[in-house]
Design brief:
2 domains, globular, 371 residues, alpha/beta, four-stranded antiparallel sheet, seven-stranded mixed sheet, Aspartate Aminotransferase, domain 1
Length: 371
């Protein structure tokens, strides 16, 4: 391999070369239950009306840099408190990156629980920051005392708390989150990507704490293809974070489509209501399966534990039967032996459960010993 002065090894930072790129598998013709997407399409009449709206979009012009009408609609739809500001991003991922860039210095720390959303760790590395994680309790709840001790030790510039948490579906106690906010010397970002599937939120408490910001996305409410996120909080913070936002980061088609969709939010809310209902039914069915331990979820997915040593085999057997979910077991730690399934349509959920029952049988090993 060329390691000369003009090679990547000579210029790409070691911490970047040590990373693996974020991998998204090609689902092919599989039933896709791996990415926490809303499985429902819009009614044809709504699609026709949306396409009519797009005919008026001027693709030859740059987007509104402030996304004014969309921003106003998002503040109403997300119930952003009066006096709080918002910054929009190309998905919540871009906003996480903007947050890190705005505070990045070599020895500064990003802190979050473990396991949690992988992009917190990756973006900390992108920004040249240190990343520290705090193990969750055995039931995937927030270990508040250990987290507070880590805050005192590392003095993080940002604490990210996914609320509910991904990939566990856990909703941390509001009292625990509040204790973290009060103890943190820097920002605490409560990431509410799965807000459509829970009644708990810190959005209404913006302004109560000077260091609290709330992150949202429209992806889980049925608009994943638009790549649109929102960061809300006090103007003093948002004004600084907005300085690292690239110009025209929200394209004209996303602005027009998201504005249209949010003006028809009743359709999206109806769909998320179906998902909440089906989540309860799917959890009950998983809970009835011998050898499977599902974890309570306030998101649109369910994490479940398989018998020890069988997660990979079960995952592969599901794929053979045409169902794609997420294999988290390779991450190790508390996720060892765990798989995660997105709540799909009733038909998709039934197909998954039938395939899972068969997979558990076919993946069984005569020498298996339960933990």
């Amino acid at each position: 391999m060329n390691r000369g002065p003009q090679s990547p090894e000579g210029w790409i930072r070691p911490e970047i070369r040590a990373l693996s790129a974020y991998h998204v598998p090609d689902p092919g013709k599989l039933i896709k239950l791996d990415a926490m997407e809303n499985p429902y399409r819009w009614p044809d009449t709504l699609v026709d009306e949306w396409l009519g709206t797009l005919r008026a979009v001027e693709l030859n012009r740059y987007p509104d840099p402030a996304a004014g009408p969309l921003t106003a609609q998002l503040k109403r739809s997300m119930q952003v408190p009066e006096g709080m500001q918002v910054v929009l991003g190309n998905g919540s991922d871009e906003l996480i990156q903007m947050l890190a860039l705005a505070v990045a210095e070599k020895d500064r720390v990003v802190l979050s629980p473990d396991p949690t959303f992988v992009m917190y760790r990756m973006i900390a590395a992108f920004a040249g920051m240190q990343y520290r994680s705090v193990p969750l309790a055995d039931d995937f709840s927030l270990d508040v005392d250990t987290t507070l001790a880590a805050i005192d030790r590392h003095r993080p510039a940002i604490v990210f708390l996914a609320y509910p948490n991904n990939p566990t579906g856990t909703l941390f106690s509001a009292e625990g989150v509040e204790a973290v906010i009060r103890a943190a010397p820097g920002l605490v970002v409560v990431d509410e990507a799965y807000a459509p599937f829970t009644d708990a939120t810190f959005m209404s408490r913006l302004g109560e704490f000077p260091n609290l910001l709330v992150l949202r996305t429209v992806s889980k409410m049925g608009l994943a293809g638009l790549r649109l996120g929102l960061l809300a909080g006090p103007a003093a913070w948002l004004g600084e974070i907005d300085k690292v936002r690239l110009p025209y980061n929200i394209n004209v088609l996303t602005q027009a489509s998201a504005l249209f969709a949010l003006q028809h939010q009743a359709t999206l809310d109806e769909q998320t209501g179906w998902i909440r209902r089906d989540r309860a039914q799917l959890f009950a069915a998983l809970d009835d399966l011998a050898g499977v331990q599902p974890y309570p979820s306030e998101a649109n997915f369910i994490l479940f534990r398989t018998p020890a040593g069988r997660a990979d085999a079960v995952f592969d057997a599901l794929r053979v039967q045409g169902v794609l979910i997420k294999n988290l077991s390779p991450a190790g730690g508390r996720l060892q032996d765990c798989l995660r399934v997105t709540v799909g349509t009733p038909q998709e959920n039934a197909a998954f459960l039938a395939a899972l029952r068969h997979s558990l049988d076919s993946a069984a090993e005569p020498s298996f010993t339960a933990r």
